[in-house]
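haha ok so turns out i had the wrong file open the whole time. this is the CORRECT one, sorry everyone. sequence first:
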Amino acid sequence: MPHATQHADTAGAELDSVLRGGPFHVALRTAIAARGLPLQRVQHHLSRRGVKVGVTSLSYWQQGARRPQRPESLRAVRALEEILQLPAQSLLRLLGETGTGPAGVAGTAGPAGQRGQQFAARRHHARVTVTGTVDRLLAELGQQTDGGLLTLGHHEQVRIGPRRELAGREEHHIVRARRDGVDRFLAVHHGDPGCVPERMTVQALENCRTGRVRRHHDTGVLVAELLFDVRLRAGETYLFRYGVVDGTAGVSHEYARRFDGAGGQYALQVRFDAAARPVRCHRFTQQSAATPRGSRQTLTLSGPHHCVHLVEPRVRPGIVGIGWDWT
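then structure:
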């Protein structure tokens, strides 16, 4: 069987190559061919996962005539990665690199050494597009990249609503001023695909008040200024808490945060509404948005409160998050 083995090796090398460099439609077509699945079978596998996509749409996607953009289409792409036995995010990343796919990021701006970048699954804009938007909004507010703050502790709670949507999140920060005169923090929220930033609200919950707010509809980004009750001196610590009410998008599948540098403790808790409990939850890590995920660990949903959580005693550069399956 030398010829068959050689053919398989060649096909595998070709698939690896297009998954790295794209474009999306070539990678999808090559992956389907490598698995030997007709489009009808691919559609059947998607249907079993509760994803409805027509054979015609699949054909258009692999020809490059159309690209998946709607939330349901992006959900199908994620399912295709599983069906075709591809690395997680490999197809989604190719969509993101052209500016119309997932992989967007946003986050909390300010704490030097731990600028946490929050992002959810299946973004509908490329990371570079979202990052550029955040930078422009921060510039409008006259905010420096590091914000003059060092994060010592960062505890975050995410709420998933009864429609399986990202209902909102709450953050508790412990920071230390790196210089004199620091009196504010800029928080960045990036909603799920289809979100409406104009309908999101920011809540200053403890030791802060809401200042200026900027929104960018196309990327789903909201930037909010949180004003401290005091002006800090270098070396002083400060605790504050705020929240973002969202609930404007569709079904959510994961929540993660990217850290550009080392920092203090980070804890993430995801709480599910009693009417929307997932069947499986897991934590994951990733070196960057372009690399495969690793360190996947199953998380057990707590009984009465329907929560899962993770704790990083000291964050390192990279991505950490929690994902879940509804079926």
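The longest strand covers residues 149-160.
again sry for the mixup
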